[in-house]
Amino acid sequence: MLDSKIETFLAVVKYESYTATAQELHMTQPAVTQHIHKLEDYYGCKLVDSSKRSIKLTDAGNLLYEYLSLQQANEKHFMSMLHKTKQPLCVGASLSIADFYLSRLMTKKFSTDNERTRISVENTTSLIHKLHTGELDCALVEGLFNNQMFNTRILIEVPFIAVVSSTHPLAGKTISLNQLHEYPLVLREPESGTREILENWLASKNDCCQSFKEIIELGSFTLIKEIVLNSNAVTFLYEGVVQNELAHGTLKRVNIKDFNLHHPFHFVFRKGDPQTNHLLDFYELLNENFKALD
């Protein structure tokens, strides 16, 4: 059972208002304020900055929120297990993994397991947030995230490549990064794992997406591939995302000097989750299937 002060703190973060928190928890506003002050006394630091009209967490408050939201999520799962309430396995997957890997990985589970499974497809940032709040039990992500609050396992490492249409002037050639700047860049929306990987690699070369002739942002891999197929644009994707197009020769790889990037797909779940053993069994099933694809 979570301490009432903790529940108050989590509600303040959720509603961003002492008044709304008081109404939701059927408390007085001074009682909400007192709960926050007692937590600040206990932890010895300022957690909430309410000096302005809007409520904001301090750095310490953000760290405490990440920790306590995980405890709240684990508490809910423990209560379900305690009362033997059957809940679906809630799995999150980033778009790259869901569209081009997950169906083949999950076939064995669906054909041999009667457990209900619910799959959500979102970008890495959204998936990590839903793990924090308990909306997901585990997630398959390729983006960058803070793993201090989570257990992680690597499934596989996959090649991350640049591709263009088969009629593109650079198709199949080995070039410098600067030569790509002359062409439009098609990429995913901000906070997507695929985009973060590219942005971080470019930053390591003292470069950025804005160096390209034009930036086109799309949230669909189908649209991204269609644009690249019918234009002189370039995009960066996991090799598996364009496996069919490469095999049929409609898209061609561009070899960039000093660019040999492989990135891991991670299986992520909350530390301290009471169903850890079950999640590890699920990971082993996925890992076995991933090895078969590798």
Please tell me what the overall shape is. globular
Report the order of strands and helices. Answer: HHHEEHEHEHEEEHEHEHEHEEH
Number of domains: 3
The largest sheet, given as strand count, sense and whether it forms a barrel, is:
10 strands, mixed
**What percent of residues are in strands?**
15-25%
Which CATH class of the largest domain?
Alpha Beta
For the record, the CATH architecture of the largest domain stands as 3-Layer(aba) Sandwich
Q: What helical percentage do the residues reach?
A: 40-55%
The N- and C-terminal alpha carbons lie at a distance of: 44 Å
Class inferred from helices and paired strands: alpha/beta
Q: What are the segments in which pLDDT stays under 50 over at least 5 consecutive residues?
A: none
Nearest-angstrom radius of gyration? Answer: 23 Å
What is the helix tally?
11
Mean pLDDT: 87
What is the number of beta strands? 12
CATH topology (fold) name of the largest domain: D-Maltodextrin-Binding Protein, domain 2
